[in-house]
Amino acid sequence: MSDRFTTDVLREAFYAVTDEMFESLKRTSQSPVIYEVLDFAVGLTDAGGELVSQGNGIAGFLGPLGEATRDTLLRVPDLAPGDVVATNDPYAGGGGHLSDVAMIRPIFVDRQLVAFAAAKGHWTEIGGKDPGSWTSDSVEIFQEGLQLPFVRVVRGGELDRDLVAMIGANSRLPDMTIGDLTAFAACLEVAERRLLELCERYGVEDVTSAMAAAHERSEALARAAVERLPRGVFEAEDFIDEDGLGNGPFPIRVRVEIDGERAVADFTGTHPQVPGPVNCTRSGLVSGIRTVFKAITDPNEPGSDAWFRPFEVICPPGTIFTAERPAPVALYFEATEAATDLVWKALAPTMPEVLTAGSFVSVCATAIACTHPDTGEPTLLVEPQAGGWGASVLKDGEHGLVSVGDGETYVIPAEVCEQRYGIRVERFGFDVVEAGAGRRRGGRGLVREYRMLTDGILTVGFGRHRYPPWGVGGGHDGSPNYVEVVRGDGARERFGKVARYPLREGDLVRLVTGTGGGAGDPRERERELVRADLEDGIVIEHEALEVYGLDPS
Fold first, then answer.
1. Cα angle, residue 147 at apex, residues 142 and 152 outer, rounded to 5°
2. How far apart, in Å, are the Cα atoms of 438 and each of 344, 345, 371?
3. Pairwise CA distance, residues 204 & 115, whole Å
């Protein structure tokens, strides 16, 4: 058993391993959604698949890495050194949709399994009926892409060329897809190399005991944090607006109970799973609620599976949050984000200094398939959109941030869109509308306008299209998300979800994300702050005068 100081050194070393994994994958990936957006996460687990350390990246992957690893142990019991297992099964191994591929590498020392390295991220193309694989009108999982049911893509250190060829043959962008596969495998090799160095320096026993100590520390800190939370029962209701097939809205509800020893989120009474692809599976629900639980306990402490031992999620099977095979889940993140926001809404009134009013919530997923006007090559833009966050009693909401589940990610820069995809970016700025007013105002959403230089097709999944972000304490609601296509002849069409929408050269695609909800009575906002917002163009004159009551003189 190592001493306390060695244990601390090793715990920090585990964090350093995942940081290096993160940088390796970011630098070697072929997809902008990986190397620009950072739509991925990496982690290190113990031999039982319990997450010890997770790098930056997608907050919504808080949990799937460990779950994917534990399911790998069950599905592939004969793992050997040099193996790498790939899975994108939404109903096991960490949920998500088929585009979210997890790759897991066991780490052995003298045939003894000591740990796993895991990476999970969004592959731009993995087949399915629509370009980009995810879509907004699928009715079963089989339409959404190639399924990888815990298959060994690397055996004994060598790529399985037959399997890799099959993956490439099922992708519209095989070079990019295989490039991402090899980048994932490389970052797992980095983790193995660094962990073996630690085992050689400190010994296997000290390394594994440090992992156990890290679990104990995380759980103890989490339980201490739960003791400090407000105690009671907190409830909230809301709606998921539509499923992409014209059905909806769908009521969702939660009952959160905190008793000083544990926190329980019960979603009983939520709508059953739906025909369209906005369902998520149970692991997606758990991951979404873990995000809130981490925020209200200690957002700064590194994430691990042990942190969530005082936390429980209850939800019957077969709901929009616990969909079962073969339910479509291509837009699963809309249900996951809605669940996060629902618990957030239940707890915000009692924790106003920690949790904000409602935000734009949705990933606002966007895919544009077209031909590059300069090269004639097919291109595929896949990205999230950023939007406005709600205000708290302490500060105004943040402008133009990615949704809560996206965590430490970004949007694709305008310059990359133009160079890589041959689409002209004509506007990228704040959407200043009369919404989100409060003593502390909601953050503004964004407008991103793409001019098509060739024909193409558009698929989008914008949630909160009908139901805007909620305000608190007298603050006003925010504004909804939407997409507007302006034709060359001036005709316009607005929607929240669409699949394979035909675009013509010269069309303008306008992507608009919502303003977050406000906190407190707008009439109580300090006059100098209203004037500053007006001068900065963050509020319009009518809102400043009529809603905030600013004296025009």
1. 165
2. 19, 17, 45
3. 10
Residue at 531: amino acid letter: R
> Collapsing DSSP states into helix, strand and coil, what is residue 231?
coil
pTM: 0.92
Residues 6+ apart with CB under 8 A from 212: 46
Q: Is there a contact between 508 and 449 (Cβ–Cβ < 8 Å)?
A: yes
Query: pLDDT value at position 553?
Result: 64
Compute CA distances 348 → 303, 472, 517, whole Å.
Answer: 22, 8, 12
* Residues paired with residue 84 on neighbouring β-strands, in sequence order: 154
The answer to whether 349 and 471 are in contact (CB under 8 A) is no
What is the separation of C-alpha 139 from the centre of its chain, rounded to a whole number of angstroms?
Answer: 22
Q: How far apart are the first and last CA of the chain?
A: 74
| Under 8 Å between Cβ of 309 and 219 | yes
- At 175-222, the pLDDT tens digits run 999 999 999 999 999 999 999 999 999 999 999 999 999 999 999 999
The candidate with the shortest Cα–Cα distance to 114, out of 65, 60, 46, is 46
Sign for the CA dihedral angle at 382, 414, 433, 356 comes to positive
Q: Tokens in use for 215?
A: 């679990």
HSE (side-chain half, CA atoms, 13 Å) at 535: 6
Distance of CA 47 to the CA centre of its chain: 26
Residues 6+ away with beta carbon under 8 Å from 549? 522, 523
Place of tokens 């009529």: 546
Q: What's the rounded Cα separation, in Å, for the pair 504 and 370? A: 10
**310-353 pLDDT, tens per residue?**
999 999 999 999 999 999 999 999 999 999 999 999 999 999 99
In this predicted model, what pLDDT tens digit does every residue of 126-152 receive, in sequence order? 999 999 899 999 999 999 999 999 999
List the 311-314 sheet strands across, edge first.
232-240, 250-258, 263-266, 311-314
> Alpha carbon of 2 to those of 7, 259, 282, 289: distances in Å?
6, 36, 38, 35
What is the tens place of the pLDDT at every residue in 185-195?
Answer: 999 999 999 99
The one-letter amino acid code at 427 reads R
List phi, psi (to 5°) of 496: -110, -35
